[in-house]
Amino acid sequence: MKGKRWINFVAARYVSRGRRNSPSPILSVLGIATGVLALIIIIAVMNGFQLGFIESILEMSSCHLRLEHVPDNDIGEIRGTLSSLSGVISVLPFKEHNVLLRGRNANPRGALIRAVPADALVLDPGLAGKLVFEDGDGFFNIDDPQSIVLGAELARFLSVHVGDPVNLLSITEMEGGSRVYFVSGIFSSGFYEYDLGWGFINMDTEDDDSFTTADTVLGIKLKNRWQDQHMMSEIKKVIHDAPNGVSLTSWRDYNRSFFGALRTEKLMMFILLALIFIVVGLNIFQAQRRMVLERREEIGLLRALGASDRAVRLIFVWDGFLIGLAGSGIGLVIGLLIAFNIPVFFSFLEGAVNSIIFVVNNFSLWFGGAANVEEFAVFSPRIFYIKEIPSRVIPQEVILIFLFGFLSALMAAWFASEKVSGAKPAEVLRYE
Length: 432
Description:
Shape: elongated
Oligomer: single chain
Distance between the termini: 22 Å
Largest sheet: 6 strands, mixed, barrel
Number of domains: 2
Radius of gyration: 32 Å
Strand order of the largest sheet: 2-3-8-5-7-6
Number of strands: 10
Strand content: 15-25%
């Protein structure tokens, strides 16, 4: 047989006409599309949550790099040197204190108080982007020596508002007595641990002996946090004459256990969801095996007309190729459409479920019962500490998911078509 276009033609007819006594290829396409769609949406939502946590930690707590044990006399010079590096966005000096706070509520609460310059949000735009002020003047106000800015959950626990006093007692210097601060602002970061256990005071006006013993840390933010190792080398070069004891730490080392747990969680979720493709691939494999047996007479006829084993086998491989491409393509388009509009999708889902609940409640009332079914919310604010469901689509992961779906069908078709090579034209035509 001359030319290879007949292979595409026969494969397309097999897909479009279906198979005798076998499931329609449409079911295989829908199976792959469902797997690709589910993986894209679930991984996108998981990325939204995980990257939100990671960014909150890096922007507020650990920074991308931390230069610790810096002598106060050298802070200005070193900070100016680091700020001049091309890969550095900001350098913020701060001190941290573990304290006990007591407000109107008689119960004290442990907290981490970070002492920063009054213009901290100007020096560190990343920190400014993570803080939303729920009360106060709407900005970071710690100009007064006795001002303190508290996390929203911490303020609620202490039962304090802007203008209320709080008593602060350093845990490291219990005998030093307490000190009174006045709440000048209440912030929300979207990360519960920080909103419940963090506060800010002015670094330049802290004069209590219990606080001045803390070491100064320079929190360094980079343009690209993945270049942390390169930037560490650059920083070590420019501060080679820094006093002994100064240490430089990357965000990878500072949060190794937490970020490692997040990676493991995401990997296991990916593996579990990828089992969908294994199931669909096995179904395609069995369907292709049945099709090879059902079309033995056609295979024999093609072989008798001069088609090689490889050419006939390509017919069935093209069958799997078309199924994989169609299923992965459909799942990719719908998955991305939903992933980029997660709030709209979940609002629609909640509306549909609540409509059913409304009907059930009214039906129950008509028959003298009680409307006991409450409204449904996928992520209720009363349970989860989020205002909306986050979603982050990472292109590399989307491509990987698409290839998973496509290759599962292609490989299943390839292995199923091995029986083609065992078909003998003379024997097939004799008995068929």
